[in-house]
Amino acid sequence: MRFILLLVAGCAFHSMRAQLLDSIALFTREPARPIVRLDLKGSFVSNHNVRIVGVKLGLEHARRFQYGVGYNFLFTRVERDRPVPEIGTRPTRLRLGYLSAYVDYAFYQRGPWEVRIPVQVGVGRGSVVYEDLAGEKRTLFQSGLITYEPGMTVQYRFLTYFGVGAGWGFRLVMRTRHSLDERLTAPIYTLGLRIFFEDLYRDFAHGER
Fold first, then answer.
1. Which residues contact 49 (CB under 8 A, 6 or more apart)?
2. Which residues contact 69 (CB under 8 A, 6 or more apart)?
3. Which pLDDT belongs to residue 20?
4. Mean pLDDT, residues 16-38 taken together
5. What is the b/e burial string over 145-176, where b = at least 16 CB atoms within 10 angstroms of the residue's CB?
6. Cα–Cα–Cα angle for 188, 16, 163, nearest 5°?
7. Please, is 128 exposed, middle or buried when counting C-beta atoms within 10 Å of its C-beta (0-12, 13-18, 19+)?
8. What is the pLDDT, as a whole number, of residue 209?
9. Which of 6-10, 16-20, 139-143 holds the top average pLDDT?
């Protein structure tokens, strides 16, 4: 019986994946339009509640499938005192920045509601810096970073040009060298208001003609 259940589940997953790929292939036949996105995500670094900003450039097909590249960086100051060799305890600050490739698929659109699955993979660098006794910036730790961030977002659109949404996901961080003395793998979340500037501009320009 267990084997039969696993077989049924495997067949269902394979069918869903095939349908997803077929849908995306269908959407990519539609003309692409350029998009620019500014993301603000909440997350955690060790015991700190932080904000990560992302600037993305990409293409969108049929308002359903997006892909592109971006740059993400830690916006919140994460600081604490650490021992520095030959100097003693000094205030230090964590810095994170990474380039990413992303895809974003809207698998549900009904009326004002939209549910999307964003996924991004990134590579970059993290460091812990401090000021020496002469006031010069020095690096205490540094490491290469590889990130993987799957998630899901839900949005409700209202008054034509506005939407309110929430999202959740997970940020998995693999370090290539030093641990940076911080816990970087953590949940991510979003909550906020969106303004559809592209639709506002299109309708305004059309009305002006």
1. 42, 43, 76
2. 56, 57, 58, 99, 100, 101, 102
3. 65
4. 75
5. bebebebebebebeeeeebebebebebebebe
6. 45
7. buried
8. 46
9. 139-143
pLDDT tens digit sequence for 34-93: 988 888 999 999 989 999 999 999 999 988 999 999 999 999 999 999 999 888 899 999
Highest mean pLDDT among 10-14, 57-61, 160-164 belongs to: 57-61
Give the C-alpha distances (Å, rounded to integers) separating 69 from 56, 58, 78, 160. Answer: 6, 6, 26, 28
Q: Output the CA–CA distances (angstroms, integers) from residue 56 to 36, 39, 115, 118, in the order listed.
A: 6, 8, 19, 12
* pLDDT recorded at residue 159: 84
- Spatial contact of 72 and 52, defined as CB atoms under 8 Å apart: yes
Please identify which residue in the block is written with the tokens 């960086």: 73
Beta-carbon count within 10 A of 45 CB: 22
By the 10 Å C-beta count (0-12 exposed, 13-18 middle, 19+ buried), 119 is classed as middle
Give exposure, 79-116, as e/b (b: 16+ Cβ within 10 Å).
eeeeebeeeeeeebbbbbebebebebbbeeeeeeebbb
pTM for this one? 0.82
Q: Tell me how far apart the alpha carbons of residues 63 and 116 are, in angstroms, rounded to a whole number.
A: 11
The residues facing 125 across adjacent strands are 97, 144
